[in-house]
Design goal:
mainly beta, five-stranded mixed sheet, four-stranded antiparallel sheet
């Protein structure tokens, strides 16, 4: 991952969940695959600005009764990727299926 760098950012008011992301590079493209369990497509936003691709997704967890063992966190997923200048923003495509985002 020589040209594509990643960082995470935290917020004091909302827990920030760092989604696991695989990044691949080949002769024609960079491919990012992010796992966003429990997220619906309407709650995913991508923004490319000044060479940074920002991925934000919100997960809401329904609580039923008194929690005895709570392992699923509610909050925002967030990752920021530095995108090489050679990437043409008009060619970026994304798909979201079964909680997996592919860019």
């Amino acid at each position: 991952m020589s040209d594509l760098q990643t960082q995470t950012q935290a917020s004091a008011s909302t827990p920030v969940l760092v989604p696991p992301v695989d990044v691949y590079e080949n002769d024609d493209e960079y491919r990012l695959i992010a796992d966003l369990p429990g997220v619906v497509s309407d709650d995913v936003t991508l923004d490319l600005d000044r060479g940074e691709l920002t991925l934000v997704a919100k997960r809401t967890v329904a609580r039923e009764g008194e929690g005895l063992a709570l392992g699923r966190r509610e909050g925002d997923f967030r990752r920021v990727f530095k995108v090489p200048e050679l990437v043409d923003p008009t060619t970026i495509e994304a798909s979201f299926e079964q909680g997996v985002l592919q860019i």
